[in-house]
Specification:
The structure holds 2 protein chains of 2 kinds.
Chain A: H1 27-31, E1 47-53, E2 59-65, H2 67-71, E3 75-80, E4 104-105, E5 111-117, H3 120-129, E6 131-136, H4 143-148, E7 163-171, H5 174-179, E8 183-191, E9 203-210, E10 218-224, H6 229-240, E11 247-250, H7 266-278, E12 282-285, H8 288-294, E13 301-309, E14 315-325, H9 333-342, H10 344-347, E15 353-360, H11 376-393, H12 397-404, E16 410-411, E17 417-418, H13 423-434, H14 436-441, H15 443-452, E18 457-469, E19 484-490, E20 496-500, H16 509-521, E21 528-532, H17 549-576, E22 583-586, E23 589-592, E24 599-601, H18 602-613, E25 616-622, E26 643-655, E27 661-671, H19 678-697, E28 703-704, E29 707-708, E30 726-732, H20 754-766, E31 772-773, H21 777-788, E32 815-817
Helix pairs in contact in A: 6-7, 11-20, 16-17, 17-18, 19-20
Chain B: E1 8-10, H1 15-25, E2 29-32, H2 38-43, E3 51-54, E4 64-67, E5 71-75, H3 80-85, H4 87-92, H5 94-102, H6 106-111, H7 114-118, H8 131-137, H9 165-171, E6 175-180, E7 183-188, E8 208-214, E9 220-227, E10 238-246, E11 252-260, E12 267-268, H10 270-276, H11 283-294, H12 307-330
Parallel strand pairs in B: 1-3, 2-3
Antiparallel strand pairs in B: 4-5, 5-8, 6-7, 6-8, 9-10, 10-11, 11-12
Chain lengths: 860, 335
């Protein structure tokens, strides 16, 4: 039997809570404004903090004079880079940030000084009184400029010009693959990148409680709108030199993150330091413009793709290159670089695959992870590229995809383990539900009708597929500890308290914990009190990124709940005089499966168990299995305990006179395994569709003279409710063997196919290709005019992605790897891989990894 | 959150008290109605008035009344929501109802007034930025600087007239009444505008826009098309207001075409209007008129999307507006 099928027995359905469309546990408090967000926190004697930011994209700091600011009445502290010199960064391999700039600023918005004052007006005045003298340096504002000017180094530490990271991999025999092809096509694509635009801007409050008897001098608490309190905890502790034991990081309600609140930030570190210096609480709330400057958004990526296929569309080889515009700092960028290449073989079975990726520094706000982290860009490129190949070959785009789908329970050419996979069902569902075949069959009649009515609107349908991880297989910093842990305490009054570091950023992770524990213990979710995202109260969960929380915290919660259930059932069995295996929990009772009238209430069972065993507290934890990836350096990005799959059909109307594109409907099928709550899953699918739609057609991350051109949500266009297309969510798939109750992710995957589906639909409607995202109406009109070449007009050439020409070899050593190189390894000698990390849910043991594990921590 | 600069707020109860306060406080004072344009601009330090004179209590600025045969009076303090929902305006001045409904978002239309929309500050994406941003790139002549960042060689400011209702009111040949301690004046609305991004209005600092008069509507049809990126929360990047009156034989008796968001003031397409008058509206003629009208549009790179695109869309939008009005009259389809 396959290793991943040997698993714990799942609780037998039908479920009482799981799978039900229940409201979120915090729904009422959120929609009535009662929920407390970071900026709602007001503490006695609280000060207002703020950052002075660089007005130049690239400059040397000659001097900073803070005297006038410090002397302003009402100002309690002013700090600059020298006060917080220790470098940090989310990845251990990219420690390139300081809380405040030292010597140099690298983008407009780079923080230079921080102030704490008694009120916001004094703060603003103080910031304007700080004098900074700069020597302006040349600014590099694009991938091409960064490559062309190795002499202008944004970071001294880079070895090769402004190249932050370059990687090169060959999986399988790429030459043989192309040699076997009947047809080879190459394309260039560009994805401009964008911001997350969470509705809540970043905010934090820091409180220092001095204690002269404490050798550290006191303890620090930070409330912050963050997705990753654990990583903030680590980095703040490091920069401030305060042991983690003396620092507490709490994420209150978070008003959306989408990846933009996953880094440790300057404002968080500065608020802590200002609080420590003044002995008073300090709040820093970012403006919307600052959110655009803090950024960590979707990387602009230029992509080159070359694919060889057989006449019938079977892929024989793929070569993919990505060039990422990283902005001024590392952030998650090394991981992003890997992610632009890692998941291609997880959607389509590639017999040979070569991936070369590079990330360059530019003088723009730093890029990082955004919903889909590094994969929407290649997804756009691959899905449009395959559509072109289908058209070139005269093969139905659905048939072409079907010939290449990845198979369930297989290994990819780059060593990734695939388990449950309902990709084909996703594809079949969107094709059937959208009326794809009928729509395409009626093409000629539809065009004739449009002409007869002299309508300028042409309709088209496009399709795309995708995959996404259910949690990164490796933590951000290399360690062998659990990725998530849950603790549950039972109260003799029948109350249940669940403690978990998981951070609800609106996706509903707190609710999911409640549903899972309620299902396991057989109680109603309302009975459960949840303590989450608090580094002092709750066991570590790595954070809300990489779509990991339901899968990992959910499994940890099941384990903790089962340990308690076992205790409850043992005392209930005794009292009811039944063997424990005849008992089940449900509706607040522990009852006999053969005669539900024979039952004990949950409260009675808790009291009996507490009398027997003492205080009722249990913990569970989860770490992904080991043997889910290859054994080459860099294999830590891409593996996941499971993958979600999605398919999307877009129906668009293109106005041929204006180039305006209206997305009339999106059909989105998503393989979520078992939905823990189908309402929340549908919310994630719809939210992904909405966001993908905005990225495809509207959001422009453009710069003018070194500045973000439009850093406001008036001018930076995200869709409104009036624009949002009709979305039909179709949940498919069967429960995953390793997911909690079979659940997989839904928060990011469904975004991925939306963008290429819209691009392919535009082509289907009007026969033009815009190989660049966003597909704005000016680009569409330009392409339409170029294609029509109307008399009397001198049309501009169609929009085209300019290739990047490298004069030298790819600046990274090629790593060749093939699955057959994996050799069974004898029992690992380094026993720390064998520690009891996840109890019965860990299907390893027959693991066969070589001793060459990824050298650096695998990452988000 | 961006902070408002400090200011004193005065809340007069009558129009004469308001004009007196404006006169007394001098140029350091500004009137404020809905505040939806002024307050964000103050947060960005485009205006830093020491005194705001609130207009919301003034009854003299309220009310919508009249009839299509004598004309309609609209108090300048009426909200955009009430203008867009008013049955008289919807039935007889549909272009105005459409334009008022096209402004920003429902929430802002509930607060923003028609007077405020007419007197909207001209816009430019070098100017409508925070103090930090403008400091970073270097200030422009419209506020704190000396050059135009859109056209650095230009002696003038090219900020754009971006009010949805302004081109419509020009096309409808509205008149406006301005009141100050020095007296009252009623002028055709065209005379309220200057072709100057820095000083776009002939309104003096002590004057209050009290009301708008729409002429009789009998025989007229009108419409407004707005080029925008999304369904709500956008300033126009092109506004096309068209009003037509047909003769009984189907010829165009009179035509008004006004373009918004293509210059620092609403632009009347005079040549195009002249070409239409007395003619039968054939598709060929409408296309020709649209092309003529579009010659008046000279967009610059200071608003959303590209200059070429905004220029290319002008004739399309003018023709579509004309088509709508001609088709509405003729029942089904163009000939």
């Amino acid at each position: 039997m396959d290793e991943w099928r040997r698993l714990q027995p799942r609780k037998a359905g039908p479920y009482k809570v799981v799978g039900k469309p229940l409201p979120k546990v915090d729904a009422y408090s959120t929609v009535t404004g009662r929920a407390i967000y970071a900026d709602d926190i007001i503490l006695p004697r609280m000060l207002y903090g703020g950052l002075l930011r660089s007005p130049h994209p690239h400059a040397r700091i000659i001097s900073i004079n803070t005297r006038r600011a410090r002397e302003l009445p009402g100002v309690l502290a002013v700090i600059t880079g020298e006060d917080l010199p220790r470098k940090y960064g989310i990845l251990p391999s990219s420690q390139d940030e300081t809380a405040l700039a030292i010597d140099k600023v690298r983008y407009v918005g780079d923080p230079v000084a921080a102030v704490a004052a008694v009120d916001p007006d004094t703060l603003e005045q103080a910031l304007s009184l700080i004098e900074v003298e700069y020597e302006v340096l040349p600014a590099l504002m694009s991938i091409e400029e960064a490559l062309a000017r190795p002499d202008v180094k944004i970071h001294e530490e880079t070895r090769n010009g402004n190249i932050h990271k370059a990687v090169s991999y060959e999986f399988g025999d790429i030459e043989a693959g192309f040699a076997a092809a009947d047809y080879v096509r190459e394309d260039w694509f560009y994805y401009e990148g964008n911001n997350h635009v969470p509705i809540e801007t970043h905010a934090c409050v820091a409180r220092w409680e001095p204690d002269p008897h404490n050798p550290i001098g006191g303890k620090l608490t930070l409330w912050s709108s963050t997705q990753t309190p654990h990583y903030v905890h680590r980095e703040v502790s490091k920069v401030l030199g305060i042991p983690p034991s003396h620092l507490r990081v709490i994420a209150p309600h978070v008003g959306g993150g989408f990846g933009g609140k996953s880094d440790p930030f300057s404002h968080e570190i500065c608020a802590c330091e200002l609080a420590r210096r003044t002995g008073r609480p300090v709040k820093i709330t970012c403006t919307r413009e600052e959110v655009f400057l803090i950024h960590r958004g979707r990387h602009p990526v230029k992509m080159w793709i070359k694919t060889g296929v057989k006449r019938d569309g079977t892929i024989t080889a793929m070569h993919f290159r990505s060039f990422l515009d990283g902005g001024a700092y590392g952030s998650y960028g090394v991981a992003t670089t890997y992610y632009t290449g890692a998941l291609q073989p997880v959607t389509y079975a590639l017999p040979a695959y070569k991936f070369e990726g590079m990330r360059v520094f530019t003088n723009k706000p730093p890029c990082g992870p955004k919903r889909g982290h590094g994969t929407p860009q290649p997804r756009f490129a691959v899905e449009v590229h395959l559509d072109k190949i289908a058209a070139d070959l005269g093969v139905d785009p659905i048939e072409l995809r079907k010939r290449n789908l990845v198979r369930p329970y297989s290994r990819t050419i780059n060593g990734l383990r695939i388990t449950s996979c309902a990709l084909e069902e996703c594809l079949d569902q969107v094709v059937a539900r959208s009326g794809w075949r009928e729509f395409h069959a009626a093409r000629l009649a539809r065009e004739a009708e449009a002409t007869r009515q002299s309508s300028p609107v042409r309709r088209g349908m496009g399709l795309a597929l995708s995959t996404y991880i259910c949690g990164a297989g490796k933590p951000i910093y290399w360690n062998d500890m659990p990725h998530s842990a849950v603790q549950i305490r039972l109260d003799r009054g029948g109350g249940v308290t669940v403690y978990c570091g998981a951070t609800d950023i609106g996706q509903g992770s707190t609710s999911v914990l409640a549903y899972i524990v309620a299902e396991e213990l057989g109680i109603e979710p309302e009975r459960i009190h949840l303590e989450t995202a608090d580094t002092t109260l709750t066991p570590v969960d790595l954070g809300s990124y990489s779509s990991r929380v339901t899968f990992m915290a959910g499994n940890a919660a099941i384990q903790a709940a089962r340990r308690l259930k076992e205790l409850l059932h043992s005392v209930a069995a005794e009292r009811l005089r039944l063997p424990p295996d005849r008992l089940e929990s449900g509706d607040g009772f522990i009852y006999c499966v053969d005669d539900p009238q024979v039952a004990l209430s949950f409260e009675q069972a808790v009291q009996l168990a507490e009398a027997r065993y003492g205080a009722l507290v249990a913990a569970g934890s989860y770490a992904p299995p080991e043997d889910i990836h290859g054994d080459f350096k860099g294999a830590g990005v891409g593996p996941s305990p499971a993958y979600s799959y999605s398919a999307c059909v877009a129906l668009v109307g293109v106005d041929i006179e204006t180039g305006e594109v209206k997305v009339e409907k999106l059909w989105l099928a998503h393989d979520v395994g078992q939905a823990i709550n189908p309402l929340l899953v549908a919310g994630q699918v719809e939210g992904s569709a909405y966001m993908g739609y905005g990225e495809a057609l509207m959001e422009q991350q453009i710069f003018r003279k070194g500045r973000h051109k439009i850093p406001s949500i008036l001018d930076y266009k995200i869709p409104t409710t009036l624009d949002t297309p009709e979305i039909e969510t179709i949940l498919v798939g069967r429960p995953d063997d390793e997911g909690p109750f079979g659940g997989k992710e839904a928060g990011q995957g469904p975004l991925l196919p939306v963008i290429p589906a819209i691009a392919n639909a535009i082509y289907n409607a009007v026969g033009i290709r815009i190989d660049e995202v966003p597909i704005t109406p000016d680009k569409v009109l330009r392409a339409l005019k170029a294609a029509r070449s109307e008399p009397g007009e001198r049309p501009l050439p169609p929009p085209r992605v300019t290739p990047i020409v490298l004069n030298e070899l790819w600046p990274a050593r090629l790593i060749r790897w093939s699955p057959e190189q994996r050799e069974p390894r004898p029992d690992p000698t380094n026993g720390h891989h064998q520690h009891p990390r996840q109890g019965e849910s860990a299907p390893h043991g027959a693991a066969s990894t070589s001793s060459q594990l990824p050298q650096k921590g695998g990452t988000a | 959150m961006l902070r408002l600069p400090p200011f004193r707020y005065l809340a007069p109860r009558t129009l004469s008290e308001a004009t007196r306060l404006l006169a007394e406080e001098g140029p350091q004072a500004m009137p404020v109605a809905g505040g939806t344009d002024l307050l964000p601009n103050m947060k960005r330090r485009q205006f830093t008035p020491a005194v705001l004179v609130g207009l919301r209590r003034l009854r003299e600025l309220k009310g919508i009344g009249g009839s299509p045969d004598v004309g309609v009076r609209i108090g300048a303090g009426e909200t955009l929501t009430s203008v867009s929902n008013h049955p008289l305006i919807r039935a007889h001045y549909p272009a105005l109802a459409l334009a008022a409904a096209a402004v920003s978002t429902p929430q802002l239309r509930n607060a923003g007034t028609i007077g405020g929309n007419i007197l909207l500050d001209t816009r430019c994406n070098y100017y409508n930025q925070t103090e930090f941003w403008r400091h970073s790139i270097g200030y422009c002549m419209k506020r704190d600087g000396s050059i135009c960042l859109v056209a650095p060689g230009s002696p003038r400011c090219w900020a754009i007239s971006s009010a949805d209702t302004a081109p419509v009111l020009v096309a409808l040949q509205a008149r406006v009444r301005l009141v100050s301690v020095r007296g009252e004046r009623e002028i055709p609305i065209q005379e309220l505008f200057y072709d100057d991004g820095m000083r776009p209005y002939t309104r003096e600092a002590d004057e209050i826009l009290q009301e708008i008069w729409l002429p009789p509507a009998l025989g007229w049809r009108s419409t407004y098309l707005k080029l925008r990126r999304r369904g709500s929360f956008d300033f126009p990047i092109l506004g096309v207001a068209v009003a037509l009156r047909r003769e009984p034989d189907g010829r165009i008796g009179d035509a008004r075409i006004t373009l918004g968001a293509v210059a620092s003031h609403p632009v009347e397409a005079e040549e195009a209007m002249a070409r239409l008058r007395g003619q039968q509206p054939t598709p060929t003629l409408l296309q020709e008129v649209a092309t003529l009208a579009a010659k008046r549009a000279r967009p610059l790179d200071n608003a959303d999307l590209t200059i070429t695109y905004r220029k290319q869309l002008t004739p399309v939008y003018v023709r579509r507006a004309l088509d709508l009005l001609v088709e509405a009259e003729q029942g089904s389809g163009a000939e």
